[in-house]
């Protein structure tokens, strides 16, 4: 449990930070390590403590001491405003408080220059503020900049005047209140004013930055001639690129190219837009490789540049470059997971001598990157060119065996398809939905929605998620909601482009489409023979995060399926889990089942998971939307007293009704990424919400428990899209494994077939057939019932009674059968 810090400790931290800030003159290399070691204290308590402590301290101090302390507080506020770690929202609040307190000493009358500097910094803080109303924050930023300009005049402080004009222009360009056209005109005026000081000769970087921002403003302004505005934007971007070269400022270079490409696209010059976006993407992808600080930095950068790939896809479609469009779709998705799976599987994909050479390339590139990033290179330009050569050599060698990442070629991937498999890959743009339909012949066609379809989809998703919070309403309306989704996605029209002989379908959703049972979408709704999508494909419907990940897991040859590792009812409150695992266990030659209190994280860590062919988790699951790494499978020994005060959400999971769990004792996604499942053929997550993903992450959007197990080594993962029913899930899982062992040799794709057959069986199960199923498993059911507590037996009897009331097909509602999906091979 987290130990909460006293106010005295916060005051000690403030005094220590301000002393270090003063002694180092605000050197981040000195101050940031101290902040990093105290990240747990960079919170609202520190902000309130700073306001009280600093107000009292400044009031009591002599004038010269107060001025010195206020200066240290401003420097500290500048540092924490830019501090890359901790909670960004809290950091900004601390900075704002620091500036506001300092202004009680740095008044306009007493210290006008310090006052103006602090106002400018306060304006930056409000411009970047996360909390509060965005519109009001921008108004406060504008007011602060305008205050600063009352001191920072062109004649007295030309550089500071130009800098503040630029900041003011940025705020006006983002302003929400007032007329947009007028706001942009004020932004353009302020940018042009700053260029009186920011000349190419005197301040080339600032000049280029202002030209870039001016170009953005021209691109969006609606006053004057549209074509003329775009021409002015193009000129400004081209001017910025004179300074923003690839060698000197690669990230700015990419940003200006992106803006320039958009301007060309808006003038309908798609060839120029294509070439410009291509150059921008090449820069972005080289930038991603140059960053060696952390994988988190790479993910954030990928998210920042995601719109560039979307624009490129749009332009490729305009130029009828369909194959390139889908390649750029792939390059924008699941990049982090693709890289990590490649690293994990490298020794099984490539010959030993190739692995050795790839590792040499990796080490030399990493060393060169470090030298460039830390200023240690004797000739950075020559070294950068050398690294580009090494990357090209590495990619050429790697692509001979498995083209992935920036070297991914769709044609080589598609050649692996059999003649009866088709694929649909969705991609959501800003204004429409795309569906790439990939046929066995290699032909790719594209369905494009109307803008109103995308809005309808967004509205539908919002309503679905709202209903999901009200279980009964969501469950009862699920069938009708899926009909609406099928209509919005025009699934019937898309299916007309798939050849009739195709008996297997692979779906690659995008963003929030990963959350829904697309295999259960109704088709031919207006005919008498209306069925579900999965009914049309005898070999099933499977899912994949991306073509590249599917390509990689297809190389995992795992023929054996004889040994089982299982987690069984660790919280002892799932009434049918014991039956489920007991029957499934009987299908395997050998098994290791951790039952109830024995199903602990320690026991899993000691179980040598790497030796098993199948891992089955029958327990509670939870998906953390705000921090997916903390998504978890709940294990024994994880329960804690719900009365503990103010539990840390990073370490504890509270599910209500007195159920609180210590995540250190659970199998979280962060821990799953570290597992090794090199002999595993299948992971089944028979638990709630195990198939949900972080759909808010617009770059590497497939981050969830399935991605963890794919990375760990399993080629196939079965998981759930919602809080599933205990009883129907146990029936479904029993039938699923029964089907698996009926299929010959467990060939690739049999997981999808077995799941389809099990779902069809459950969906069409009559009361009489259910009785026969119970009779077949009577010994196991009797044994499980005998182990239940009196209260649990009562619940079981009541559930059977409710089932009989749902005539004639008690599990026909998609809630019971459609929640599980098969991902991967």
Q: Which structural category do the helix and sheet elements fall into?
A: alpha/beta
Annotated CATH architecture of the domain at 549-824: 3-Layer(aba) Sandwich
**Lateral strand order in the biggest sheet:** 9-8-10-17-18-19
Query: Termini, distance in Å?
Result: 41 Å
- What's the number of helices? 34
Low-pLDDT residue spans: none
CATH topology of the domain at 549-824: Rossmann fold
Q: What portion of residues belong to β-strands?
A: 5-15%
Main β-sheet description:
6 strands, mixed
- C-alpha Rg, in Å? 30 Å
Class of the domain at 549-824 in CATH? Alpha Beta
- Shape, principal axes of CA atoms: globular
Q: Please give the share of residues in helix.
A: 55-70%
Word description of this protein:
The protein is of the alpha/beta class and 825 residues long. Among the domains are: 351-401; 418-543, Nucleotidyltransferase, domain 5, CATH 3.30.420; 549-824, Rossmann fold. The protein is built from 34 helices and 19 strands. The protein has a six-stranded mixed beta sheet, with helices on both faces. Strand 8, helix 25 (577-585) and strand 9 (590-595) form a beta-alpha-beta unit. Helix 1 packs antiparallel against helix 2, helix 13 packs antiparallel against helix 15 and helix 25 (577-585) crosses helix 32. The model has no long low-confidence stretch (mean pLDDT 88).
